[in-house]
Design goal:
Blueprint (H helix, E strand, L loop, with lengths): L10 H9 L4 E5 L6 H12 L6 E6 L10 H10 L6 E3 L4 E3 L5 E6 L4 H4 L5 E6 L7 H7 L9 E6 L7 H8 L5 E5 L10 H11 L3 H9 L15 E3 L12 E5 L6 E10 L2 E11 L3 H11 L8 E3 L4 H9 L5 E3 L6 H10 L3 E4 L7 H6 L2 E3 L5 E5 L5 H9 L1 H4 L9
Parallel strand pairs: 1-7, 1-8, 2-5, 2-6, 6-7, 9-15, 10-13, 12-15, 13-14
Antiparallel strand pairs: 3-4, 4-5, 10-11, 11-12, 16-17
Length: 400
Amino acid sequence: MIDVDFPEILTPVFDNLSQSIYDAIVMYGGRGGAKSEALTALGIMESYIDDGVILCCREIQKSISDSIYGSLVSFIYDKNLIDDFKILNNEITNLRTGAKFIFAGLKHNITNIKSIHKLRVVLVDEAENVSQESWDYLRPTPRYNDTRIYVVFNPRFEADPTYQEFVKQADDTTLVIKIGWQDNPWFPPSLEKQRKRAAKGDAGRYAWIWEGNFLQISEASIFGKKLVQRDFEIDASFDEPQIGIDWGFSKDPTAVIESYVKDNTLYIRNAASKVGLELDDTADWLISHVPNIKRYTSRADNARPETISKVKRDGVALIKACKKWKGCVEDGIAHIQSYDAIVVHSDAMACYSELAAYSFKKDKLDEPTTIPLDEDNHFADALRYALEKYIGGRFSYDNV
């Protein structure tokens, strides 16, 4: 028996391991509800049941670091279970049962996933990004013994396929639990400080990030009304890729974004973010998510020159520090707002919600100001750095 602490609201989820009442288990809500931690614990506990395969997936996974692999390994060590597991670079096996964890992105591997032998359990993280096509393939795929699909997500829009499939249309074989920071007795003080600060800002934005409500594009949204989700192909009519990077500090994510300009429209082809990215892994992570970063100039936050130097030595030779000046944030926002539209490819949906939520502060009368909020703006900052040579007017572009 593994000793696992979990919020009381999740008791039915853990009880289901032995009762097998539900074959779809949904945990959704805002930040700080310990959903991902619970998913990790459930995956390890599932591996002690039989020799079935446990698929850990999300819509886009370009490297193993995008998955919950690291969380599973940490759990194994923290609970002193290392003698029970064989841990390889991209696979984990329970030596007691033969259960195997494998890791994959759904969008580009769905036909291969359909043929996985002994697939019993599916752990889907960041499920708000999963497409209807992926669900149509994935949901009937597990067939070995008592199958279960665990779905963890932060709500985005009510029309999103994951919400419709697993909450709106839930039947008696689906367990749905909305969980938030209020339900987490181990909610850390660092997050509580962030939450209280956010509560003083835009109410709709706070409700989405912290309370798990749907994202509403308010009048204070800086880019929200420009955003369009549509796939597109890059051809010779596009300008060269404009790539920007915002470095993570403490619990903030490192974010990278690849954009293009064409006919006064801004196109975002690739985007990714990761919290806790190790410096030694950063260059490989950037290359795996934006391969063009090896062939074209990228611009990164100049506050971390040592990180830029390390990444350059590790294979991103054309990276350079962005330039900042008084008013550069406002100038960048004005430039991005000048495009007719911001088109986001499905491979870059990691940035969509944050760009939609990026907002101006509100005054005491709840009216928007012209001062942008300095939080959850990692993709917005990366996009400004990427477009530095287009913003212009404040510095020269030697050696661009």
